[in-house]
Amino acid sequence: MSSPTEPDWSLLPANPVAFFSLSAEYDLRDLKRSYNALIRVFKPEKHPKEFQIIRAAFEQLNDALRYEEPPVSLPDLNLQSEWMSSLQDQQQPLDQAEEATRNEPQPAEEFAEPESPVSAPESKLHPASLQERLLNESPEVLYHGFKNKAVKSPYEFYLLAILSDLVEQPGTTFPDWLLKGLQAYPHDPVLFELLREFFISAQYSENLSNLLEATAQVVRSDRFYYLTERSWDLLLRHSPFDEFRQTLDNCENCLLDHRTGHKIVFYMHILRPAIWKADQSWLREAFNQINVNHQKSHWVDEELDFLDLLFQYRMIRNQFLSGGSLRSFIDQAIIEYFRKGDLEGTRRFLEFQLDLVSCQEEILHEFNTLTDDLIIVQVIWERITGEILDGLEDRLVQEDENLFQQQTQQLACQLVEEGVTPETERADQVFKFFLATVLLIDVFTVQHCLAYWDDRFWLSVTEIIGLILMNPAAVYYGYRLWEQTTYNFSEYWWRIEIMHFYQTARFPLTDVALQLKRLNGKTIEDTKLVGLDEISRLLLLDLGLWFYSTSQRLLTACE
């Protein structure tokens, strides 16, 4: 049995579900948690080979979940295809000793990421037969021999794809031969998966647009999006957007399938990075396609709302950036999270958290007023944080209710004992004195008007009307003065104290604020807890503390 620190490598690539110890009803959250638990042990900088294998297995299952495609392994497909009969007609059986050696489980250190799409299938789909032929014939002779056959089997198209790389001459390339094979055998699952593996591992090149258009002319069903999604990410990242848009239009003009399920998943995926690069007309068309085509479902509606929020942020981005220098960190973290993809985007987002928690004074100064643009940024930041935490084991202490109550009670006593309550009471006394002064002025004015009512009637009426109009304004500005006095004190004292609290505690800021409100008016160890309700109210509006506490919690969970 495998252990958390040493998984059963022999399960890959045939059975990634069992490798990640997933149940039959696993979802994306289960997959991410199992994946992140493994890469904490097999970190890319220390175990690059094992990490690449784990990453490839994760991406296989992740894509299958999103597109609702069954997870496929090439070895299993080979046993079910007509390739076996083709091999029996052309090749001698493998030596039993070689076959036994080939089927033995390999240790973790012998695993390696394929250097090209050829390596993985070549090692699994009877490589010995091709190697035996190469001992007696040159790659050029084999290549032209298969190429000149009038009728080719799926396996022969695969061999031509391999040999085309060995021959190294201008002409039909590895993916071209796979496309020719799919054109002859449209439903062959092995050729389809081989081509998908090529698109997954392919690097960006100037020929990528042409290859995608050629693929759309062969695979004309809705599965085209599932097949080519990774290459669209490359094209969007490395080419001008006009080229991406024109290529996508050309490909979609070739598709004939009436189904739209894969198309919706693709647009949901590509819109996240495209929002930061696309023009507004294309974005509106993309949103419209999803709205028109998708069958109403909860996850589509939820993701569509979030994509619309990202679009709104793009529109008010300049307004947000004008509020201070620290906002550029937040802006860059958001954009890179969506543009760089799942793994690299998450890594960069976590790096930006370190920048935030090291800027205590700046974060308190720049986020002391809750505006419309900040509300949008807060929702986006919270969504990104939630997506990262969903993929982690539940290592936060928020589940420990007793510890939560104990630490928040200590915080409440500290806030009261060290001066919050006297300052709050001082502000209350100033406000009450101001209201009493306004009331005395009202009483004196009314008495004065009544005393001289007959002698100067209209002047008295005017004074009373002016009094009625001036009272609301006086009360309003008095309240604002009281609020500012309380807030100014919080900025210089209890906001710093709560920041210190979050250097050791890992509870959501909202939960802390609500707990402080519940503690208001109680007595703990001879300390009367008063004034905490106002602190709770200000905490719920304090975006600076929210950013700080969220970053601290996320960094702790990712340690």
Percent of residues in helices comes to over 70%
Structural category: mainly alpha
The total count of helices amounts to 29
Could you describe the largest sheet, including whether it forms a barrel? Answer: 2 strands, antiparallel
- N- to C-terminal distance: 27 Å
Account of the 3D structure:
This protein is mainly α. Among the domains are: 306-402, no CATH class; 410-557. It is 72% helix and 1% strand. It contains 29 helices and two strands. It has helices at residues 16-19, 28-41, 48-67, 74-80, 83-90, 96-103, 119-124, 127-136, 139-147, 154-167, 174-184, 189-201, 208-218, 224-238, 241-254, 261-274, 280-293, 298-321, 327-339, 342-357, 360-366, 372-390, 401-417, 420-451, 457-492, 494-501, 509-519, 532-541, 543-557; strands at residues 523-524, 527-528. Strands 1-2 form a two-stranded antiparallel ribbon. The longest helix has 36 residues, at 457-492. The relative contact order is 0.06.
Which features would summarize this protein structure in a list?
single chain; 559 residues; mainly alpha; two-stranded antiparallel sheet; 2 strands; elongated
What does this entry show, briefly?
With 559 residues, the chain is mainly α. It contains 29 helices and two strands.
Give a topology summary:
Blueprint lengths: L15 H4 L8 H14 L6 H20 L6 H7 L2 H8 L5 H8 L15 H6 L2 H10 L2 H9 L6 H14 L6 H11 L4 H13 L6 H11 L5 H15 L2 H14 L6 H14 L5 H14 L4 H24 L5 H13 L2 H16 L2 H7 L5 H19 L10 H17 L2 H32 L5 H36 L1 H8 L7 H11 L3 E2 L2 E2 L3 H10 L1 H15 L2
Antiparallel strand pairs: 1-2
Helix pairs in contact: 2-3, 9-10, 10-11, 11-12, 11-13, 12-14, 13-14, 13-15, 14-16, 16-17, 18-22, 19-20, 20-29, 21-29, 22-29, 23-27, 24-25, 27-28
